[in-house]
Amino acid sequence: MSIGASIFLLVVGAILTFAVDVKNTSGIDINTIGIILMVAGVVGLLLSLLFWSSFSPYRRRTVGTLPEERVVEERRIERDYP
Fold first, then answer.
1. CB 53 within 8 A of CB 3
2. Distances (CA, A) of 67 to 2, 61, 63, 72, 75
3. What is the per-residue pLDDT across 14-58, written as a single tens digit (0 to 9) for each?
4. Cα 25 from chain centroid (whole Å)
5. pLDDT value, residue 21
6. Are 2 and 17 in contact (CB under 8 A)?
7. Which terminus of the chain is less hemmed in, N or C, by CB atoms within 10 Å?
8. Distance CA 68, CA 59 (A)
9. CA dist., res. 50 & res. 48, Å (int)
10. Are 10 and 41 in contact (CB under 8 A)?
């Protein structure tokens, strides 16, 4: 689920929970559906943020856990200039 879809579920759930005031519905509780949508939106948002940061191409990767175990690789790029 994307971040946009999660926020959409949160908004729709909040509207159903707090803004809609229906007196008579047979078999459907609008407030409960709104709360379920808000919970699904929060869970989707947290999972989206978790996976978004883990698959990001801009993350730093360290090999060791201690500072003295970390590996730093330096490359020298040589170019032929005319």
1. no
2. 35, 13, 10, 11, 21
3. 999 999 888 777 888 889 999 999 999 999 999 888 877 666 555
4. 34
5. 85
6. no
7. C
8. 20
9. 5
10. yes
